[in-house]
Amino acid sequence: MPIGQTIVLVGLMGAGKSRVGLELAKLMGLSFVDADREIEKSAGMTVQEIFERYGEKEFRAGEKKVMLRLLTGEVKVLASGGGAFMQPEIRAEIKEKAISVWLKADLETLVARTSRTTHRPLLAGADRAEKLSDLMDARYPVYAQADITVPSDGSSPAEMAQRIREALLRHADQQGVHA
Ligand code: S3P
Q1: How is the chain classified by DSSP, letter by letter?
Q2: For a FRET experiment, which of 8, 75, 141, 165 has its CA 20 to 30 Å from that of 152?
Q3: Does 29 score more than 80 pLDDT?
Q4: How remote is the CA of residue 116 from the centroid of ligand 1, in Å?
Q5: Any atom of ligand 1 within 6 Å of the Cβ of 21
Q6: Could you tell me if the CB of 81 is within 6 A of ligand 1?
Q7: Is 14 close to ligand 1, i.e. is its CB under 6 Å away?
Q8: Contact 157 CB / ligand 1 (< 6 Å)
Q9: CA–centroid distance, residue 177 to ligand 1 (Å)
């Protein structure tokens, strides 16, 4: 495996981080970890419940703890929650220890992909297109700091995983890392 570092998937809700991450892990022979699921395991409740009971600030504190833990230990594919890369400490740790891949989706794709889900507290009760568009404005300049950007369009998770693998290999090559 020529990468040798944890691969962190970054991007907005609906960009495909979890589904693509699972495929990428299979392709690269790595384990897959979804940060939101790990947060839920350590809190003993869902992300939605954490937001409802304790608020976003507490969720972000838990997210930081869990992400910093997941960035140590075995090399893996790690799907981060959409807000994780926005936390400077998490971002710095990702920069230092991992390779980041931004799944960059347009508004139409994000709206379509999140339209059937009800578990995302930031989208609850909001006009989805408006909320996602605001989040794109706030976050895309920061997500752009990821090591690699891969467009997330109508492609299947398996196709996306292939695309990411190729981009990772190109990136490793440019950095002078050889298999
Ligand atoms: C959030 C994204 C969610 C989850 C939480 C907050 C965000 O994860 O961490 O609801 O701030 O964008 P997904 O991006 O996996 O939906």
Answers
A1: ----SEEEEE--TTS-HHHHHHHHHHHHT-EEEEHHHHHHHHHTS-HHHHHHHH-HHHHHHHHHHHHHHHTSSS-EEEEPPTTGGGSHHHHHHHHHHEEEEEEE--HHHHHHHHTT----GGGTTS-HHHHHHHHHHHHHHHHTTSSEEEE-SS--HHHHHHHHHHHHHHHHHHTT---
A2: 75
A3: yes
A4: 15
A5: no
A6: yes
A7: no
A8: no
A9: 32
Confidence of residue 1 (pLDDT cuts 50, 70, 90): very low
Whole-number pLDDT of residue 179: 47
pTM for this entry: 0.95
Decide: 38 in ligand 1 pocket, CB within 6 A: no
Residue 98 scores a pLDDT above 80: yes
Ligand 1 touching residue 17 (CB < 6 A): yes
